[in-house]
Structures
1.
Amino acid sequence: MELVAIVIAVALIEYAVFCFLVGKARGTYGISAPATTGDPVFERYYRVQQNSVEVLVIFIPGIVLFAQYVRPDIAAGVGVVFIIARALYFKGYISDPKARGLGFALSFLPALALVFGGLIGAAMDLV
């Protein structure tokens, strides 16, 4: 489970970096809090942050469930894919929102796989 804990911590640090970059973009593009609109590039940064927290809600419980009921080493490996994919998502979305698809797919699908895998593993332990 140590590898899973490290992967979760790195995913949360990545999210914290996204939060910091949103704050930096506020200054760069002159968007005072609490506003979340006003400059298209700032809005991209903000959407990356919001979309990332939405998928973290699926990813974190999913990786814990998968690690507990299936295999922690596989869960950690899938988690690394998730982290790299979120960075690709960030890069794609900031450059051109239409370029976010690969990063989205490579992070959302593994997050779902962790949840469903954990569910199946738990159900099999029950039976």
2.
Amino acid sequence: MKSIHTDKAPKAIGPYVQGNIVNGLLFASGQVPLSPETGEVIGSTIEEQTEQVLKNIAAILKEVGSDFNQVVKTTCFLKNMNDFAAFNEVYAGAFKTQLPARSAVEVARLPKDVLIEIEIIASVNE
């Protein structure tokens, strides 16, 4: 197992890593819309926050030589399922040619009271 860290994505705010590579798969921890530089929440709308989460995920993918086309599964946690359509519009923009399997659920609360968290599993070339 190899743990992943990049300064281009927010550092872990608890006892976990940004991701682990096991048997050619990246299991990335859930990303919330934090600035990698300041640790502050970016955006107040679901669209703005989803864009930041996707930027953070892109940075982790880049660190391991992967991209959104290699994402095989996402789990998306939304604070309010009424935001689903707006979230989906931004989310769809990240996946140009290959769509991952996905789960999307509404949750009562997320870290720092953000509106969205996304975790991924992606293939990598070791």
3.
Amino acid sequence: MKAIDILNVKGNALYTVSPEEPLDEALRTMAELDIGSLVVMNHGHLVGMLTFREVIKAVVRSSGVVGTVGVGSVMDDFPQTCLPDTELDELRRMMLLRHTRYVPVMDGNTLMGVISFYDVAKAVVEAQDFENRMLKAYIRDWPVEEPDSPPPTPPS
């Protein structure tokens, strides 16, 4: 399974914000949409990611006050990205090594979507469920030996 396969199942909803937008407005959007990240775009180009991790750090730095600081001053300037043909196992490895929960999928300069750690976990569980069903079907169709047949003769 590849990153593009996960996006095809997930759908193409994409939520973006500009670096100039006030952080409090971005947080309101995240809360209203019940999402954990926003892609930060500037003139059609990916320039960063805003996730709850960056938000928590900003809130701690400002002693609990969000204020009107811009998204660009708190976003992750260099988010981990992947290609549409990145394999699921490689995507998992990337996310675990960088402690990344959201990965934009880029085809050149075009943002295809964002894959979350939840999306990856769901894809893994669905793949395992499919494999389990196939194995169970295979076992169910296993040829049954005739009860009257003699046991196999061991080699001498």
4.
Amino acid sequence: MRHQAREAVLRCLYRREFFDLSPEELLVEETELKEPAFAAALLRGVIEHQAEIDSLIDRRARGWGLDRLSLVDRNILRIGLYELLYGDTPPEVAIDEAVELAKAYGTEQAPRFINGILDRVWKEGRCARS
């Protein structure tokens, strides 16, 4: 069920690249949501923390600045990083879900690339807490 919500959030974030709409306006088109509260919280969270997330992507995407990533790959990373850093989703699930989104919607290299960045951020966070 939450996978479907993540797919909806990915579509919303993609639309937001072209239209300056609020989370509520973006979610209006997502009429089939089975977990609307989760989708709304995830979308609002990604948007609220987008500047920090984008800065992190820019620092971690060695040789691939934020502007060089495809819109879809960039937004999958935003979702995964938000869940890793600010959400209550277990890290392994957040990474796995982002990789699954990348396999379904991202570029050919996206699954490996997204897994690498999310795994590195997660491990750095665990080391910092140790």
